[in-house]
Design a protein that fits this description.
- InterPro entries: Isoprenoid_synthase_dom_sf, Terpene_synthase-like, Terpene_synthase_metal-bd.
- About 30% of the residues are buried.
- Helices cover about 70% and strands about 0% of the residues.
- The chain has about 250 residues and is mainly alpha-helical.
- The longest helix is centred in the first third of the chain and has 26 residues.
- The chain has a single domain, classed as Farnesyl Diphosphate Synthase (Orthogonal Bundle).
- The chain is globular and about 50 Å long.
- Helix 4 runs antiparallel to helix 5 and helix 9 crosses helix 10.
- It is built from 13 helices and no strands.
Length: about 250
């Protein structure tokens, strides 16, 4: 929820100057930074600090550093959102490579991969968090899968995302190809990223509990982006949720 609220703020609601102030406050991570913000952002910022402090109290004392790593990942995400806002403000048209480098992070999945590790107790160590905080290929590929699947359903639905151009649009412009060719390329890249996730199971034995969580998280992406953007328009999840938790199973 916090990530969605912050994403919408940077994308749609805040001016570029407010975006800069919000990022400055999040990087400071202190109640004294509240005064930097307009009233409507002060409420969000105070609640953000409260939630992270609450999580810190909930985990075991020896695991409080877990929350510190999650906070740093959230601060990184804020900086990525600001970069996207700056591009939009400047009417900057990024290359396909630059777009993917930023969007794979700003989609939020690498941040959530670190968040998934909080509270895992003895299954993770400080070294595990250091590994994840370096955003290894497995977390980047998780982000790319979410980003590319989101872009495909948004483009096919005829509705652009409200922020910077999608990966499909960037590829079409840079390589002067049709949308069909661009989508074919994107699907090929998706296959490569799924392979990266599978390879991670064999390459990161010491981090296997985290790798499995990251892969399980990536495996949820088709639920949200297989045909329509069910993350943004959650009415598309209605039938799935009802079939799992409401309707009886035929005997």
């Amino acid at each position: 929820m916090l990530i969605s609220l912050m994403d919408d703020t940077y994308d749609s609601h805040a001016t570029i100057e407010e975006c800069r102030l919000l990022n400055a406050a999040i990087q400071r991570w202190d109640e004294s930074a509240t005064s930097l913000l307009p009233n409507y952002l002060q409420r969000f910022y105070i609640e953000l600090l409260r939630i992270f402090n609450e999580h810190k109290r909930e985990v075991a004392i020896r695991d409080t550093y877990h929350v510190a790593y999650a906070r740093k990942a959230f601060q990184d995400l804020s900086a990525y959102y600001l970069q996207e806002a700056e591009w939009l403000h400047q009417n900057h048209k990024p290359s396909f490579k630059d777009h993917m480098s930023l969007s794979a992070m700003s989609i939020g999945s690498p941040t959530l991969c670190i968040g998934l590790m909080v509270g895992m107790g003895d299954l993770v160590t400080r070294e595990s968090f250091e590994w994840a905080a370096g955003y290894p290929n497995v977390t980047i590929s998780c982000g790319k899968i979410a980003c590319l699947m989101d872009d495909i359903v948004a483009f096919k639905g005829g509705k652009a995302k409200g922020d910077i151009a999608t990966s499909i649009e960037c590829y079409m412009v840079e390589h002067r190809v049709t949308s069909a060719v661009a989508i074919s390329k994107i699907l090929s890249l998706l296959e490569d990223d799924w392979k990266t996730l599978n390879q991670a199971l064999f390459q990161h034995h010491a981090q296997l509990p985290m790798v499995r969580r990251i892969i399980n998280f990536a495996n949820s992406m088709p639920l949200f982006y297989a045909e329509k953007d069910a993350y943004t328009f959650n009415i598309h999840l209605k039938d799935t949720v009802e079939s799992l938790f409401v309707e009886t199973i035929p005997m």
